[in-house]
Amino acid sequence: MAELSIGFTESERARVGELYWAAFRAKLRIAFRDDAAGAGQVTAALRPDRTLVARVGGEVAGMCGFHHGGHGAVDLSWARLRTGLGTVAAAWAALALAPLERRELDGVLVLDGICVAAEHRGRGIGSALLDAATELGARHGDQWVQLSVVDTNPRAEALYRRVGFETAGHGSIGALRHLYGFDRYRTMRKRTR
Ligand SMILES: CC(C)(COP(=O)(O)OP(=O)(O)OC[C@H]1O[C@@H](n2cnc3c(N)ncnc32)[C@H](O)[C@@H]1OP(=O)(O)O)[C@@H](O)C(=O)NCCC(=O)NCCS
Questions:
Q1: Predicted confidence band at 93 (pLDDT cuts at 50, 70, 90)?
Q2: Could you please report the per-residue DSSP string of 38-50?
Q3: Does 176 score more than 80 pLDDT?
Q4: Which of 86, 112, 131, 181 is the most buried (most CB within 10 A)?
């Protein structure tokens, strides 16, 4: 079974980044010149202290980011983008990422991307990460744990329902759907206790 804890070592950063980029590439790709630039920026920007990690046999098998204290799992600040990409590419990336930004909410642990390596899916690791996130929310004193799921991912939505999340709202990114490959998304919440 997987072992779960917050944080990853610098030697695990590339693996965590690879998982995150593979899972969320479709949404994030438009912000960057190419895959290498996007994967590189996202990997460098990952914060261990905002990442729950699942390991199987000591190897990273999955992760779930969360927002806390003004920071999420992927800290793509303007300063970081400008240093990594130069001013013009950073300005485009900041513009393209802005509609995807999640805000922190009082009393709510907002999750920031859950993914499990393809070869480890279907064995309960995603569910275990969601349980750990719920416990983390309770430890932080939050009443709710919240995530968003796009309309093109019904299997993930089914998993969230199965572990106790319910729909809290809907949204649409409107005309931007052509850029990001999805239109509507659903916000889902679960009580932490
Ligand atoms: C969603 C995800 C984190 C679930 O992790 P997991 O370890 O496979 O989850 P569990 O084993 O606890 O539960 C299995 C359930 O996850 C869902 N699931 C399985 N494969 C999936 C996939 N490729 N994409 C989305 N959901 C998937 C299904 O509901 C599945 O149940 P089913 O086999 O009865 O259909 C994982 O599949 C994944 O990383 N998918 C790609 C990235 C993604 O879609 N992230 C969610 C963004 S909101």
A1: confident
A2: HHHHHHHHB-GGG
A3: no
A4: 112
The residue whose CA has the least distance to atom 9 of ligand 1 is 126
- pLDDT of 97 > 90? The answer is no
| pLDDT surpasses 80 at 179 | no
CA–CA distance, 75 with 18 (Å, rounded to integer): 16
Q: pLDDT at position 164, please?
A: 97
What ligand 1 atom has the least distance to the C-alpha of 128? 12
Among 159, 165, 184, name the best residue to mutate to test ligand 1's pocket (greatest count of ligand atoms within 8 A of Cβ): 159
**Concatenated DSSP letters for 121-163?**
TTSSHHHHHHHHHHHHHHHTT-SEEEEEEETT-HHHHHHHHHT
- Centre of ligand 1 from the C-alpha of residue 30, in Å: 24
Residues with CB under 6 A from ligand 1: 23, 114-116, 121-127, 149, 153, 155-156, 158-159
Q: Is 114 helix (H, G, I), strand (E, B) or coil?
A: strand
Is it the case that residue 19 has pLDDT exceeding 90? yes
- Average the pLDDT over 98-106 and give the result: 79
Task: Please report which confidence band the pLDDT of residue 26 belongs to, taking 50, 70 and 90 as the band edges.
Answer: confident
Structural domains in the chain plus CATH codes? 3-191 (3.40.630.30)
| Among protein residues, the one whose CA lies closest to atom 37 of ligand 1 | 121
